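Worked example

This section walks through a single chain of length 459. The input is the sequence exactly as stored; nothing has been trimmed or padded.
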Amino acid sequence: MNKKNNLLIKSIKVCIMLLVGATSTVVFAQQGKVISSYGPTNQTETFDQIKASRMAVKGERANLQKELLTSRYDLAKKTAKDVMSGGKPLPLGPTANLQGSTWGALDKMTPEQIKAKGVFPYKPLPFADHAEGGMLFPEMITKALPRLVRFDLDFDLPEHILPDPAPAIFLTTRPDLGDVAKGRLVTIDNYYEIFNGILNPKQLEGLRLLVTQFPQQQFNATEDRRTDRPSLGVTCFDCHANGHTNGANHLVGDIRPQEFRHRIETPTLRGVNVQRLFGSQRALKTVEDFTEFEQRAAYFDGDQCMAAKKGVNVLERGSQVHFMAEFLALLDFPPAAKLDIYGELDQAKATPSELRGEEIFNGKARCSTCHPAPYYTDNSMHDLKAERFYKMEMANGMMMAHDGPIKTFPLRGIKDSPPYMHDGRCFTLEDTVEYFNLIQELHLKDQEKTDLVAFLRSL
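Given that input, the structure is written out below as tokens.
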């Protein structure tokens, strides 16, 4: 009875917290529950009242998220000898908590059996506070950029599974320079010093805009911001650190109601010049389209009314967005010494494990169907139908529903970009291999998985 009472009390707490202090789009009418796409734009509470209500639930929500993460993953720090291009050790996995099962046992089960038993190890991952949402930055970034600290939420994932805090920068136009960043985080304070004499004036102006702050839903000057002090906003490179990623995440802006919105990891911008689709699910056709889409509303939870209220700066396509895109097109993948001009392994340089992994990648695992060389993307969208493996149910305020079609991200330089998948549910490359082994029903052997990870690290 005590267990049942405790579960009931916890459920009531969760329900209360989802309603208190949340930026939900749900409103209640006299005749039951009505779902609205719009949130209130006329704020009736002061900043102090909003902060107090958010702080009242911060600790409990953080504990709930920690409980969920520790139930799903082994969060202990484990790293490999291999390092990212910026020098940070690679996280080592798999990290998934199998809840008393084994990979071998899961491999023998059908999707229906895994779903019925509730033992799928890589279910959709909720945001740190899913009812609240908004851009959330890891501590390794907020230490360097304290203006990005939110008073209401702390980052939920361990730092050892995140990318380099100051990633390397490689330019398609100047490969002779190697890493241009050299351990520096590019900001408005140093971009000119670092890139003057390397970029042309248009590209420098594009970079300036990429490190310039613009208002966003939680970072602005209004009373319903989530920062102690009024803020000018965030920059593109606050999330895409040095044109790469730092593991910052938020909620996708174009799904309603709130509990169906997906957590979304910041993807790298390296190799944007070879990509033809932008946005994990939006399939926007150019990076210029994506930039305008995000700037006009998506950074405000997809709400153009809120964007207007909070001070959106609409960028001019010809003289601003185009300049930003011109700089982004220079961001190259990190060098891969073992790949030849076709993006395939040079047999004289690769290890036996890497070569076996490449054979599995192109053969049994069918990875190359969606990720062909040389950039390891087909510039298309695919629906893995992962919902075959888990039940549609609530998890910390998020409905674990269908993922739907997701763009094929390039795998060149993939070791630099943990965590993986559009919502970061796979913390390591080992986790990613285990995920696809189940999703595709590949029945890979342990050595084949090891070899496949070795190949992915070489890209």
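What to look for: The first strand starts at residue 26 and ends at 29.
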